[in-house]
Amino acid sequence: MSILTGEYIFAAKVETTYGTDATPTTILNAMRVKANIDIAKVELEGMEYDSGRTGAKGSLEKRRWVEGSLDAYLAGSGTAVGIAAIAPLMQAAGLKLTVNGTTDVAVTLDDIANAASITGKFYRGTALQTQVGARCDWEIELSVDNLPRLKFPNYKAIYSAQVNGAKPAAADLSAFLNPLPTDPISFVTQSIFGFNAKISKVTIKGGNEVVYVPESASVEIVDRTVTIDVEFKEPTPDVKDFYELIGTYGVINLQHGQNVVNVGNIFEANAANAQLTNVSSSERNKISYLNCSFECIPTAANNELTMKMR
Q1: Tell me: the pLDDT tens digits for 202-241?
Q2: Residue (of 26, 29, 267) closest to 149 by Cα position
Q3: N or C: at which end does the chain have fewer Cβ atoms within 10 angstroms?
Q4: Which residues, other chains included, contact 43 with Cβ-Cβ below 8 Å and sequence gap of 6+?
Q5: What share of the chain has pLDDT > 90, as a percent?
Q6: 69 to each of 38, 41, 161, how far by Cα in Å?
């Protein structure tokens, strides 16, 4: 019997103990994602010895793990202080979600040593792989060309063999809201170094270095570099000359979603110490656009970037 790609479903739950199955189910823990997962990433080493004849000597397996990416939409919970349904994946990417009274949910960078791990259950029809000890990177994209995205690249987990059984219970995805399209009305704040930019695309990357550690048979986040790439209409030099600002530091403030109107689906990001590292130009609709790259430099532990969902 064939495995049909239309029958894929991924469920995830935060682990209490690293590498111990948290038993997520499709009824309670299904994620509305596109799972692009390599079931087995295998590292082999070719053997070398004198055999008296030419030709390959065969290889032996050194290690194997699970690797891939999970793509989702950036959407809130429907209330200002509700945790978004995609939260388990955000936590596995080293993000911490904290409810602030009645106002918002703060999304901050957790210390990488404290990053949560998840158990993923990856169903492909009747085939199931349990992926314990999983961690990943994160990436947010707001673009006029696409719906807002929240991606989890560099997903890695401890390998286990697939099992075949019955199809899972119907997935409950009712907690996942539809994303708010990016347009001039919904993209409320677009402040780049104090300039009110007309942004066509912004990509915020967590830059997590996620590695499989063979000595402990674990997946760990060992470093990160938070970056922001922005494409926006180029102003005349008398207004703002971003080429002159390469190497300098400034503030980036973004808000997607209107106050009051879109409560429960508002996203904010603030980089208080962003360094402009590169500027190039491109053309959209016969208008010149700048493509600016920024690195978010921490001034204290884990303060490169702060975000809110409300």
Answers
A1: 999 999 999 999 999 999 999 999 999 999 999 999 999 9
A2: 267
A3: N
A4: 61, 62, 63, 64
A5: 95
A6: 9, 13, 19
* Phi, psi values for residue 111, rounded to 5°: -60, 135
- pLDDT 10s digits, 235-255: 999 999 999 999 999 999 999
Please state, as a whole number, how many other Cβ atoms lie within 10 Å of the Cβ of residue 58.
9
- Whether the full predicted model's pTM is greater than 0.85, yes or no, is yes
Give yes or no for a contact between 193 and 250, defined as CB atoms under 8 angstroms apart: yes
d(CA 275, CA 228): 10
Neighbour count for residue 132 (Cβ, 10 Å): 23
Tell which residue, 195, 247, 56, 33, has the closest CA to residue 122: 33
Q: Are 111 and 223 in contact (CB under 8 A)?
A: no
User: With contact defined as beta carbons under 8 Å apart, do 256 and 148 qualify?
Assistant: yes
Q: Which two tokens stand for residue 209?
A: 């270095």
CA separation, residue 82 to residues 3, 51, 263, 301 (Å): 36, 66, 11, 26
